[in-house]
Write a structure and sequence with these properties.
By secondary structure, the chain is an alpha+beta fold. It has one domain: Alpha-D-Glucose-1,6-Bisphosphate, Chain A, domain 4 (2-Layer Sandwich), CATH 3.30.530.20. The protein contains 4 helices and 8 strands, in the order E-H-H-E-E-E-E-E-H-E-E-H. Strands 1, 2, 3, 4, 5, 6, 7 and 8 form an 8-stranded antiparallel sheet that branches. Helix 1 (about 15-20) crosses helix 4 (about 125-145) and helix 2 crosses helix 4 (about 125-145). The longest helix has 20 residues, at about 125-145. The chain is globular, with a radius of gyration of 15 Å. The termini are far apart.
Length: about 150
């Protein structure tokens, strides 16, 4: 597994960027880069389960490992979801179960620096390298709107 890092500088206050990241409406917009219509099922509290879903009922079940509002969010990915149900771990999911995905926000004058780190297995490296920058551009666009 490899950890990829993506960065973007956004001309918006840190609380606005945080809101864009985790508000249901804007979350659906920026994650649409990965899968149109994707959404999350969560109360967004540290320690809680979160389901990252596609409209067809497939996705990932994860845990919000750390949440520091306006600063840091960390997800630990556990396993797959099919037909809206968590699946038991199999040999394929064991390869990535425990993978982390983190979002760090740093305020700097009128800018916010967003750094995302995501653990990725080899077969998905090229996909994430190609698609994740587009997600960050959507976050930037949404955050910089008045």
């Amino acid at each position: 597994m490899e950890t990829l890092e993506f960065k973007i500088r956004i001309k918006a206050p840190v609380d606005k960027v945080w809101s864009v990241l985790w508000n249901d409406d804007t979350y659906k917009v920026w994650t649409g880069v990965f899968c149109e219509g994707s959404y999350a099922v969560s109360d967004w509290n540290e320690g809680d389960k979160i389901h990252f879903m596609s409209p067809g009922g497939e996705g990932m079940n994860s845990v919000i490992e750390t949440k520091i509002p306006n600063e840091y969010m960390a997800f630990k990915h556990i396993g797959e979801i099919k037909d809206f149900k968590e699946l038991p771990l199999n040999e394929e999911t064991k390869k990535w179960s425990g993978a982390m995905e983190t979002y760090r926000l740093t305020a700097d004058d009128e800018f916010t620096d967003l750094v995302v780190q995501v653990d990725v297995i080899e077969k998905h490296l090229d996909y994430f390298k190609e698609v994740f920058p587009g997600a960050l551009e959507r976050i930037k666009d949404l955050s910089e709107k008045n």
